[in-house]
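Hi U.,

Before I forget, here's the chain from the pilot set. I'm dumping it here mostly so it's searchable later in email.
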Amino acid sequence: MWLDTHCHLDACEFQGASLAVAQTASEKGVSGIVIPAVHPSNFDTVAGLARQRSDCFYALGIHPMYVPDAHENDLLALRSRVGQLMSAPDNPGRFVAIGEIGLDFFVPELTQSPLREKQEFFYSEQLKLARDFGLPVLLHVRRSQDAILKYLRRIKVPGGIAHAFNGSQQQAQTFIDLGFKLGFGGAMTYTRALQIRRLATQLPLTALVLETDAPDLSPSWLHPTINSPAELPQIGAVLAELRGLTLEQVATQTSANACEVLPRMRIG
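Structure:
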């Protein structure tokens, strides 16, 4: 069993064929796909996809790259929606986390005032939301690991996933100590990605989850074409090779890790 813990299945790159893409992934052995929202405008879409397939799950949040166009009322609406979902008796197993949230210090304009401060405000408010409802978070941590961790120390959430992790060994350990798993995907498949491959080899396997971030972060054999959740088993095979493990060992442990950190997710 393979679990894709981060896949933008609703993306326009899939040209309206999202359900077919998920079916192809299922036929390749992917038993679960987590679809994170990025903005209130796609909340209904990701929820709708999850309702249509028993192997799809979703998260709700405002991505840092969408913060410039977001308003404080969006945070209030998100809190209200999460409250409704958490009190709905027929919902367990579909809505699993707050995400994709976080900080992006790679895009230059997002690092300048006032957008940096706005990013941090939306991130901290969504962490408080996760804390208040006891939900894990799916974190965007592009060149922002230390700032992300600063807020996690202040606002205690029940863990989550540091998506597309590319930090230091020390930062990785801090995330782990705070109850987080680290997401590895297509970047790990490039031989030149020495730091990521080193981390994938040396970190405890119990701390790792697999992801595609499809349609982005294509593995080496697809570059420069779009990524797909069907690639997850082959990405997992790269991790198995790096660690000298069998496919079954990697699939079993990374899937168990995902279920541990996203306890609302029901597989099978």
